[in-house]
Write a structure and sequence with these properties.
- The chain has a 4-stranded antiparallel sheet.
- About 10% of the residues are buried.
- It is of the alpha+beta class.
- About 50% of the residues lie in helices and about 15% in strands.
- It folds into 2 domains: about 90 residues, HPr-like (Histidine-containing Protein, Chain: A); about 25 residues.
């Protein structure tokens, strides 16, 4: 049997939770995949799931696709797992906003800096970039 379900990506996925999730997913016989418009991963792959969690924004829709003999158990586990981490995690504004929003805000604020502020900032940055 195969089931696909659309869900909304929750807040609260830490490295520890992803490890816990992959370990739990390995107990199930079913194959499982997570997919957004831009990427897909195997739910039993540590690296794949880490990458998926980093690339998916909080509140973004994604599909979970489960195929095998214990599909219902997998979906019940997944929904319980997500609800538990969503309820126990409080994220800061920066964590919840996501890397793209933070980067956009920083780039915008840099464009407003005068040359003196830029000069001071460059002296502190050690990223190898010559300009801000």
């Amino acid at each position: 049997m195969k089931i696909e379900k659309e869900l909304v990506f929750p807040k609260g996925f830490t490295v520890r939770k992803v490890i816990e999730l992959v370990t739990a997913n390995e107990r199930f016989a079913s194959k499982m995949y997570f997919q957004t418009k831009s990427h897909q991963c195997n739910g039993k792959s540590m690296l794949g799931l880490m990458s998926f969690m980093l690339m998916t924004k909080i509140g973004e829709s994604y599909m979970i696709s489960v195929e095998g003999e214990d599909v219902e158990k997998v979906l019940q586990f997944w929904e319980k797992f997500v609800n538990e981490i969503h309820g126990e995690t409080t994220l800061s504004y920066w964590e919840e906003a996501g890397a793209e929003n933070v980067q956009e805000a920083m780039c915008h604020s840099i464009s407003l800096w005068n040359s003196s502020v830029r000069s001071v900032a460059q002296s502190y940055l050690k990223s190898g970039k010559k300009e801000i």
